[in-house]
Please model this.
Amino acid sequence: MENQRISWGIAPIGWRNDDIPEIGKGNTISHLLSDIVVAGFEGTEVGGFFPEPKVLNKEIQLRKLRIAGQWFSSYIIQDGVEEVSKAFHKHCEYLKEVSAAVAVVSEQTYSIQGKDKNVFAEKPFFTDEEWDLLCQGLNELGKIAEQYDLKLVYHHHMGTGIQTVAEIDRLMEYTDPEHVHLLYDTGHIYVSDADYMTLLNKHLDRIKHVHFKDVRTSVREQCEKERKSFLQSFLAGMFTVPGDGCIDFTEVYKMLLEMNYSGWIVIEAEQDPSVAHPLEYALKARNYINEELIPLENGSLIKA
Model:
């Protein structure tokens, strides 16, 4: 029997991608949600093509699914927290209406994740003054999220100013743990630092949302050699679902169980749906979870 503290979801990014809207555009919301049911997941995150709350609630209730959260691009350094807060309030209002758990925030000032730049060598960096602005701003956004019964979880991401373990360390040190939590993404930290356990071990107490993303090492090495952008890299197949790449999710899952992690684990693998059939890969991920991860719960250190 699965651990009741953990909810398993899968992100819509395998069906349609907000960064490249033209790929997978034939996949409707009904198609996506029905595939999620077939693959045996409990819910998903909101994608850019999702309908307004009333329509979405109808669709998810018919399928007995739930919404975990949604990405929010913050520009605190660029625009200031007062301006960003206006958009964030609207974001949180939507999430509350669909009974989500978290608001996923990523600072996009200077980000190259959507640009034609070498994601392996041209990431941006923040000045000390910018760091101060960002951390103070995130504390404020975290308080806003709480007004809507949400947790703000920060998404470290390739091609942004908060990508490496060292940068995440700084973010965790200078933000308020009461208001700013961490989204732990296996794929992004592995591509960035070639290591995924250090971050998990260092910030167990701050992790309130998890993305399980696998990495094809040979593709990653080729993309770095060819100086590809982030979008070019995922289209080349750098990311995939758990069990199809190099990451050992058994050690990650054991650690989450030992810490009594409670929340969502969302499978997320940016791929071209015309190359990687979304339902096929969703089923591949679910089979890996059932065969390799769920059995670990019998020997875990979960407390009653």
